[in-house]
Amino acid sequence: MTMEFASRCRGTSRIPADPSRPYVIEKGEGDRAHLFGDLITVYAGGEQTENAFNFFTVEGPKGDIIPAHLHADTYEVFYVTQGAVRLFVEDTEGRQTERLLTPGDFGFVPKDCPHAYRIERHHSQIVGVAAGPGGTFERFFETLGTPAEALGLPATPYVPEPERFASVSQQFDVRFLAGHEWGTSA
């Protein structure tokens, strides 16, 4: 049985907003959103952790690179549990690296470092955690994307209108880097 709670970001949420209340969520029953070809599921966010960190998964098919972006005040973790994900990162001195992450591999992206990723194999899954002094950004996914009630990937990719990218950057610690070039195999 799934209990529904309202939050400041959603009309209904499967995760309680009270940071002092323990809870358990069954696999896939967090707050879901579709963005591009992916399904993002949030299990804990700013409301539950007093903006200390978030915990989410990204599942998707083999596809295009996610647009380059950075977080000015947020550190981000990529932990691959299924499939393969190519992580692209540029440090604060402009050095770019790319790594293929497979199950059990961990990637860390410090704040202010441009990064992107591309899912390399169908049925891949990333566990993400983000934390920093600027709070958390997990509600970005459903704000830029679209909330999803059903389990599973979107039947057709959800690609937001270009002007929406700028509007979410003002609300969340996500700044897209239009035209960013990767000197790697991106």
What are the key terms here?
three-stranded antiparallel beta sheet; Jelly Rolls; 10% helix; 186 residues; 3 helices; seven-stranded antiparallel beta sheet
Could you walk me through the main structural features you see in this protein, from its secondary elements to its overall organization?
This protein has 186 residues and is mainly beta. It has a single domain, classed as Jelly Rolls. Helix content is 10%, strand content 34%. It has 3 helices and 12 strands. It has a 7-stranded antiparallel β-sheet with strand order 8-5-10-3-2-1-11. Strands 7-6-9 form a 3-stranded antiparallel β-sheet, with no helix packed on it. A hairpin with a 5-residue loop joins strand 6 (85-90) and strand 7. The longest helix has 10 residues, at 162-171. It is globular, with a radius of gyration of 16 Å. Residues 1-6 have low confidence and may be disordered.
Instruction: Give the strand tally.
Output: 12
Give the helix/strand class.
Answer: mainly beta
Number of domains: 1
What's the CATH topology name?
A: Jelly Rolls
Sheet-strand content, in percent, reads 25-35%
Strands in their spatial order, largest beta sheet: 8-5-10-3-2-1-11
- What oligomerization state is this entry in? single chain
- CATH top level assignment: Mainly Beta
Q: Radius of gyration over alpha carbons?
A: 16 Å
Under the CATH scheme, which architecture would be assigned?
A: Sandwich
Q: H/E element string? A: EEHEEEEEEEEHEHE
Helical content class: 10-25%
Overall pLDDT confidence = 89
User: What's the main sheet like?
Assistant: 7 strands, antiparallel
State the end-to-end CA separation.
43 Å
Protein name: Quercetin 2,3-dioxygenase
Domain Cupin type-2: 60-119
GO molecular function: dioxygenase activity
Organism: Streptomyces xanthii
